[in-house]
Amino acid sequence: MKKNYRIVSLLLACVFFVSVLASCSGGETPEDTTSADTTTAPVPDNWPEVEGTVIYVDASAEDGGDGSKTTPYKSISEAQARIREIKSGEGLPEGGITVLVASGEYSIKDGIKFTEEDSGTETAPIKYMSAEKGGAVLNGGVTLNASDFEPLSDDEKAILNDATAKEAVRKIDLTKYGLTSEDLGELHQYGFSSKKPSSGRGYSELFINSERMTISRYPNANAEDPNLYTGSGDGVANFDILTTGEHEAPSLAIKERGVNWNIDELWAFGYFYYGWSDAAVRVADLDTNSLNVILAQNVTFGICEEQNFYFFNILAETDLPGEYYIDRKNAVLYLYPTEDFENSSISISVIDETIVSGLNISYITLDGFEITGSRTNGIVVYGDNVTIDNCLIRDVRYNAVEITGSNIVVKNSELCQIGDAGIIAGGGNAETLTSSGILIYNNYIHHWGQVGRTYESAVELNGCGITVSHNEMHDAPHQAITWDGPNHVMEYNNIYNVCLETDDCGAIYTGRRYDWYGGVIRYNYIHDVGSDTAGAHGIYLDDALSGQTVYGNVIANITGHGIVLAGGRDNVIENNLIINCVGNSISFDIRAREAMMNGVGDWFYDITLTMSEQLKQAQTRPAWLEYFPGYGDIIPYTADYAGDIYDPMVSCNPSNNIVRKNVHYTVDLKNNKGFLLNYVVFINMSTIEENYDFIDLECAQIPGYSSGDCTLTDDAVAYQYGFEKLPFDEMGRIDS
């Protein structure tokens, strides 16, 4: 039950468009955006065979190449310029052009920018292809040498609070790599309602062996007492961290440790009010005697008692392997080295633009590239008939991929170590129910939401008619899939180890609309969701979301409810297999109805009025009235409604839901909470039938359960009650 969060991208898109047009104005070839490490291997003599017209690129080639197999271009931008020449001259050849890029590191300084001028056609597409999958690395960062790290001076050691760290921590002068303070960016406030700074630019981060390291913090993660706690609960940004009893130790430690903290660079991160609303904010003042903390800015919803937070960006607290601090003014990096540091790959993200971007492009494919090291995004595309295939996008501050348009495909790719979201997709027309044709297929998305902790998804859908199929998603503090708009399909995905940190959330989640009908959630394997401290659900149709179909999913090992039907209408919840939920297998409530009955004082009242206005708008659309039978008969609830409040067609009533033929297996008696959490008086407005709860402590009917195989035996009792077999073996990624 929370405030609706929508990513507003129009302003950022406009900034993006202007920057792209500025870089490519007048139809001129953009400046080279790639350069080479001349120590890489010589020009390959075993290029893979590619049919049709081919332009060759190799970072290790000599300058002045002509793009042939024997004398390739040195940079991708040279190939891009050559394609523009061909288009403006003889025209693209039948079958199009393939730009074959040899393995090696291509240092991206300003971003690779494609425009309409770079587009192919249906019969002559353009493909940029790594000669070896993952071999061509488009790197917006800088690789650091372990041998360049030096011991600290005595004055620097004196700043550190930990005795072991004084000898372990090393520093490196980043100016030796040509980096300045401007190249490193600045920390900025972010959180539930402001994920990105106004400039759209992030800050440099450190990665070792492609894993994001931790900015020095106190207390450390997984410490005996990992969090500090607020005190006054008055909702303002001035709070007291002095606590009593078992939490005295951290506060007393602040008195001692805080004297070495630089208040001018001190930040706090936490869930300051709700467990689903994170924020990072600069600390304006910290009194180590009174333990009074003053934040530089208010945070969304204010501050509540006993909510978790920690301090970060503190040189003095660099006390665990992998923790680092950047003196951005002097361009010096301090690091507590990790194990086998000397043989590790060490990099820092630098570029403050998207690595690969496209504006109004069509019939372009990116195939097999590794894309890494951006302070912003990995790939951003506006266009149609674009394919991203077999790519690895990692180590970016914001989103791995953003796509907007029609018939765009992201497939067979890996996205990981992402600050915010994995894939944000938008397209189609919700008013006319025109499908986008966007497909997100067979991708491996993991370890996202590493900086922005809430409402950053593996996949976020906006618009109409996007399909998310056969993907694997795991390890994130919050949700995996969310969506805005009608007719999206989420199917055959394998989702696990999500919602590990936040509260009141779901692996597949959205809510608060009567005009997002037509969503289909089917044949997904959703398991191991939540933690001991996170109230997490499998599929969460929040705050009166309506018109969704949830069919044939396998939902196992959930710390909250399996499926939450939170007061909506016209939903179908059918033939789902739910195993071992701590909460109820299906939770069915009437919160929108309660808001209508309780009036202005109820927390959900104003929202239901807004939802009714959106419903009325949708009812003016001919496509909706034709596509969704009965939609035009719904009565939008308004503040002056004087009709029968028991009329099932009043929008706020939980009407016409079908909850049927779902089964729940309890394999642990501690988690046997019963099948439904019902508000029985209003269930007669819906169809609730043939749902069953079974106990199978020996897993005789689910013999592979302990190893993650939730296939029921052929003689499982569920089948005797009409439950239909599920294609469990097809859930998740498939061979590409």
**What is the CA-CA span between the terminal residues?**
39 Å
Instruction: Count all strands and give the number.
Output: 55
- What structural class do you assign from the helix and strand content? mainly beta
The average pLDDT is 87
Describe the sheet with the most strands.
19 strands, parallel
Radius of gyration: 27 Å
Query: Count of helices?
Result: 10
List keywords for this structure.
14-stranded mixed β-sheet; disordered N terminus; 736 residues; mainly beta; 19-stranded parallel β-sheet
Task: Walk me through this protein's architecture.
This protein has 736 residues and is mainly beta. Among the domains are: 10-140 and 347-509, Single-stranded right-handed beta-helix, Pectin lyase-like (Pectate Lyase C-like, 3 Solenoid), CATH 2.160.20.10; 144-342, no CATH class. 12% of the residues lie in helices and 31% in strands. The chain has a 19-stranded parallel β-sheet that branches. A hairpin with a 4-residue loop joins β19 and β20. It is globular and about 75 Å long. The two termini are 39 Å apart.
Brief account:
This protein is mostly beta strands and 736 residues long. Helix content is 12%, strand content 31%.
List the helices and strands and how they pair.
Blueprint: H1 10-23, E1 34-36, E2 53-57, H2 76-88, E3 97-101, E4 104-108, E5 112-114, E6 126-130, E7 136-139, E8 141-144, E9 150-151, H3 154-159, H4 163-168, E10 170-173, H5 181-184, E11 190-191, E12 206-208, E13 211-212, E14 214-215, E15 217-218, E16 228-229, E17 238-240, H6 248-257, E18 267-270, E19 279-287, E20 292-295, E21 308-312, E22 323-327, E23 332-335, E24 346-349, E25 356-367, E26 370-374, E27 379-389, E28 392-396, E29 401-406, E30 409-411, E31 414-418, E32 423-427, E33 439-441, E34 444-446, E35 459-463, E36 467-469, E37 472-474, E38 481-483, E39 489-491, E40 494-496, E41 505-511, E42 520-522, E43 525-529, E44 536-542, E45 549-551, E46 554-558, E47 563-566, E48 572-574, E49 577-581, E50 586-589, H7 591-598, H8 605-618, H9 622-627, E51 658-660, E52 663-666, E53 676-677, E54 687-689, E55 692-695, H10 717-720
Parallel strand pairs: 2-3, 3-6, 4-7, 5-25, 6-25, 7-26, 14-22, 25-27, 26-28, 27-29, 27-30, 28-31, 29-32, 30-33, 31-34, 32-35, 33-36, 34-37, 35-38, 36-39, 37-40, 39-42, 40-43, 41-44, 42-45, 43-46, 44-47, 45-48, 46-49, 47-50, 48-51, 49-52, 50-53, 51-54, 52-55
Antiparallel strand pairs: 1-4, 8-24, 9-10, 10-23, 11-19, 12-13, 12-24, 15-21, 16-21, 17-20, 18-19, 18-21, 19-20, 22-23
